[in-house]
């Protein structure tokens, strides 16, 4: 690729109006989850041909918001089902895994997901949908990577054996099914997002790049990858993820477009991270949920009640709850979609979880941004009972995860919002004076979801959906650069 002329997409991008970029470039979103990439690509005018995931609550969220994000896409094209069955409707052969002799048994969690998801193997309606899609401009998705967990792997195994296990785990081969869609539909551009950890897993980054380069026969792909951190792109979150981009080789060669240049343009769009206080402190300051299993709508209190622990949908108007603070630049940014600023009528998903008295004491006495073993957290550490060791001088220290309790710092950025928030929020304590962990809406704000984006399902599952998503603002940036590449190709092919 080094011989190709560099093309700076920003110069070309500025020559086009919003109406021009509403050209219906098409895309498919696989492993779509709650829709982080879907929001980003829809924001830049891309038409969603189809979305798929195996997690029903996440897809319910995507469907709930589809009329706003993609009004021209029929809900039946958001398909719940296992991609291992779905791809077979393409009719282009079986998937072959790259195994090294260490097959890993699938987890009970994944097997349960498959049991819950309806079979799509013999679904004639889905087959008809896929038969009607002959080509898309872009394929995007984040194949899951649960197999990178060291939990359950033998401690006696050598480093070489463990890293081979990373590649052999069938959960880490789902990208092969994803690439079957690229093989069949020959998209001009491909995007894969995944956790940073696979970059250091033996051979796995190379395996994905090689598989992507070899996809599509003669029309295979020029490929590059990079680790991007959300805080480098104007978000209040330290979130590192690896992104793979594939550009069809015939287009790369014909128009002199270097796939590395796409990453260069994305990286050139870096901006200073904003502080957490600009992201969540304008939201109503609610209390912790006073009782366990207290999440039904009937148990909620009005935001006007001093004991309010939040509501899944506010009883009062959004603008009254946030007052004049809704004019904050970040809030206006995340609520702008297709260049139109829009606030919701109500505040959604801003409800706190239950914490016991010991945890509330710890929360109250944590120093923002300091780990438990920091001397300033001595009072908070005094009530921690798990994973604590006492040295010869009587000093308490936690071993293992020093951030098992952690208060976010309003003057800095948040830790990575992860799916583990579904289980507890002890590592994501709100920086305000009222002891509690963050709410799903606060997590969504940190991830850059619009306030009008409503998350369905239980409060716990909302956290999982949000933690698994690509931040929509980052997705929009990538989509903008993809659109610039497609614009150049389109103009030259006229």
From TrEMBL:
The keyword Transferase applies. One of its GO terms (molecular function) is DNA (cytosine-5-)-methyltransferase activity. Its EC number is 2.1.1.37. It is an enzyme of class 2 (transferase). SUPFAM superfamilies: S-adenosyl-L-methionine-dependent methyltransferases. The active site is at 145. GO terms for biological process: methylation. Belongs to the class I-like SAM-binding methyltransferase superfamily. C5-methyltransferase family. NCBIfam families: dcm (TIGR00675). This is Cytosine-specific methyltransferase. The lineage of its organism: Bacteria, Pseudomonadati, Bacteroidota, Flavobacteriia, Flavobacteriales.
């Amino acid at each position: 690729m080094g011989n190709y002329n560099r093309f700076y997409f920003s110069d070309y991008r500025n020559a086009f109006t919003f109406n021009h970029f509403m050209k219906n470039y098409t895309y498919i979103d696989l492993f779509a989850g709650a829709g982080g990439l879907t929001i980003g690509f829809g924001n830049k005018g891309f038409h969603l041909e189809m979305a798929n995931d195996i997690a029903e609550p996440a897809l319910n969220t995507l469907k709930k918001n589809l009329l706003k994000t993609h009004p021209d896409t029929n809900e039946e094209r958001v398909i719940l089902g296992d991609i291992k069955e779905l791809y077979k409707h393409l009719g282009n052969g079986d998937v072959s895994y790259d195994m090294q002799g260490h097959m890993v048994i699938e987890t009970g969690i994944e097997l349960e997901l498959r049991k819950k998801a309806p079979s799509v193997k013999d679904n004639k309606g889905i087959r008809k949908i896929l038969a009607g899609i002959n080509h898309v401009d872009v394929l995007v998705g984040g194949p899951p990577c649960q197999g990178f967990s060291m939990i359950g792997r033998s401690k006696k195994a050598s480093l070489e054996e463990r890293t081979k296990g990373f590649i052999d785990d069938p959960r880490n081969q789902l990208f092969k099914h994803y690439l079957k869609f690229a093989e069949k539909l020959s998209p001009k551009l491909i995007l894969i997002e995944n956790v940073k950890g696979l970059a250091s897993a033996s051979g796995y980054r190379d395996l994905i790049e090689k598989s992507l380069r070899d996809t599509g026969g003669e029309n295979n792909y020029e490929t590059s990858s990079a680790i991007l951190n959300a805080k480098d792109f104007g978000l209040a979150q330290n979130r590192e993820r690896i992104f793979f981009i594939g550009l069809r080789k015939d287009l790369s060669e014909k128009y002199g477009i270097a796939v590395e240049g796409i990453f260069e343009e994305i990286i050139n769009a870096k901006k200073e991270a904003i502080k957490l206080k600009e992201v969540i402190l304008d939201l109503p300051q609610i209390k912790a949920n006073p009782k366990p299993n207290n999440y039904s709508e009937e148990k909620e209190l009005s935001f006007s009640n001093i004991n309010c622990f939040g509501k899944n949908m506010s009883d009062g108007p959004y603008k009254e709850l946030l007052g004049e603070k809704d004019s904050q630049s970040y809030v206006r940014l995340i609520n702008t979609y297709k260049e139109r600023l829009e606030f919701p009528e109500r505040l959604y998903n801003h409800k706190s979880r239950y914490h016991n008295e010991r945890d509330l004491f710890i929360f109250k006495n944590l120093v923002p941004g300091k780990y438990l073993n920091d001397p300033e957290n001595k009072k908070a550490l005094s009530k921690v009972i798990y994973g604590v060791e006492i040295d010869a001088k009587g000093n308490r220290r936690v071993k293992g995860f020093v951030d098992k309790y952690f208060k976010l710092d309003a003057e800095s950025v948040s830790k990575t919002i992860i799916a583990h928030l579904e289980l507890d929020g002890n590592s994501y304590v709100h920086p305000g004076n009222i002891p509690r962990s963050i709410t799903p809406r606060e997590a969504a704000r940190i991830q850059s979801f619009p306030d009008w984006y409503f998350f369905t399902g239980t409060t716990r599952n909302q956290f999982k959906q949000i933690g698994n998503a690509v931040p929509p603002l980052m997705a929009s940036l990538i989509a903008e650069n993809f659109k610039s590449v497609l614009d150049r190709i389109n103009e030259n092919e006229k």
